Amino acid sequence: xxxxxxxxxxxxxxxxxxxxxxxxxxxxxxxxxxxxxxxxxxxxxxxxxxxxxxxxxxxxxxxxxxxxxxxxxxxxxxxxxxxxxxxxxxxxxxxxxxxxxxxxxxxxxxxxxxxxxxxxxxxxxxxxxxxxxxxx
Length: 136
Description:
Helix content: 10-25%
Oligomer: single chain
Largest sheet: 11 strands, parallel
Number of strands: 13
Number of domains: 1
Mean pLDDT: 84
Distance between the termini: 56 Å
Low-confidence stretches: 1-9, 116-128
Order of helices and strands: EEEEEEEEEEEEEH
Radius of gyration: 17 Å
Structural class: alpha/beta
Number of helices: 1
């Protein structure tokens, strides 16, 4: 697996290896790499790497996420989600940046608007609907 590390601060601080099964609530600081099976919930403001052999059934809230394995559940990322060619995701993903590589699979909904953008999108939809109502 080739994980990009932009700075030395992104060194792996936790690891769940292939063949390991864990159920529960995972909270951590730093960068975690999961290559095993995980069921539950994951929460961090930092980075999570999901390895090619990983199977994750969880609701995930992270700062940033790279997916090379399989994820079933909703993912909320503050900075970005990147789904690599071996990655498979089934769930909804609110995030400001979503990168889906050729060959990957994403089955869900993506919301890329921030809080302020969401209000303006709602206002635009209302204005558009009002304009449509007036023309019909």
